[in-house]
Design goal:
Layout lengths: L14 H14 L12 H8 L3 H13 L3 E4 L3 E4 L8 H18 L4 H15 L2
Antiparallel strand pairs: 1-2
Length: about 120
């Protein structure tokens, strides 16, 4: 299945982060299986209306985190499961991102926890 990424300029999240998070989700859910090739940087940048440097940053971040590998002959491909971050690491990263946002909003821990409880309850199947 081809990679589907959508960038929303109005949602307040940096475009590179939106692309990064959507690729991580696609890999985590198996939509992008091991050894699947990601589009070349220039192609994805053109498709999304972003600068090539923005997409290059995404690919660098993904590679540094172990989600993808890049080789000249093969391009950028999804890494094997043994090379990827585990679920606990992903949860810690998400929590750290959320904690930074909570601090930016000058909210206290009780408000932050309640917001997480509400969001989890609203997203349960």
């Amino acid at each position: 299945m081809p990679l589907r990424v959508v960038v929303d300029a109005d949602n307040g999240i940096a475009p590179w982060r939106q692309v990064h998070d959507q690729i991580v989700l696609a890999i985590s859910t198996g939509t992008l299986p091991v050894d699947a090739r990601l589009p070349p940087i220039r192609q994805l940048a053109r498709d999304l209306g972003l600068a090539s440097g923005t997409v290059a940053r995404v690919y660098r971040e993904l590679e540094a985190a172990g989600w993808v590998t890049t080789a000249r002959a093969r391009g950028t491909v999804v890494a094997g499961a043994t090379e990827r971050p585990d679920r606990a690491a992903l949860l810690r990263t998400a929590a750290a991102d959320y904690a930074r946002r909570v601090r930016e909003l000058d909210a206290d821990a009780a408000e932050a926890v309640e917001a997480v409880r509400t969001a989890l309850a609203e997203t349960q199947p």
